[in-house]
Amino acid sequence: MSNSNYRHLLSALVQNVPGVLAHISGMLASRGFNIDSLAVGETEDPTLSRMTFVVVGDERVLEQVRKQLEKIVTVVRVLDISSNDFVERDLLLVKISAPAGSVRSEVRELVDIFRGQIVDVGPDEVMIEISGRESKVQAFIERVRPYGIRELVRTGRIAMVRSDGVSDSPATTGAEALRA
Questions:
Q1: How far is residue 132's CA from residue 149's CA, in Å, rounded to a whole number?
Q2: Where does the record place the ACT domain (predicted)?
Q3: What ranges do the domains of the chain cover?
């Protein structure tokens, strides 16, 4: 089975200094690698940031991306999260056409089914927040598309490797595995 279109989820621990994101994204672009998803944020150590990104390609592409990242002085460590058991989340904010009445009730029911929440209400629209796996977020988008999506914004994917023998419990997110 070919994995030429396999989505690799990478986590790069980098020094939290100006220009790191530009340097890394420029390096990847100059070598013809496309970033499918990107999220960057400070870690538990304010001197470090974590860049979580998705690149699409085969094992050769993954290996080249890793090698190039590891050459950058401000990169502390690179981890292929997709080769481990991990927890991932995407965040979606979406404005849906939903005039008061039965349509708004239908939209509210969908939000409840997907365990989201309505975060803003206007006369003819609602703003909804949904978080979860990429497939859940995409499924929600497809379910509300017929109502009329007025605006949509998504974060890049974030992920952490699970600890050994860990369930889906919120108290055990796998942070210890990433620090090892």
A1: 19
A2: 9-83
A3: 7-83, 88-158
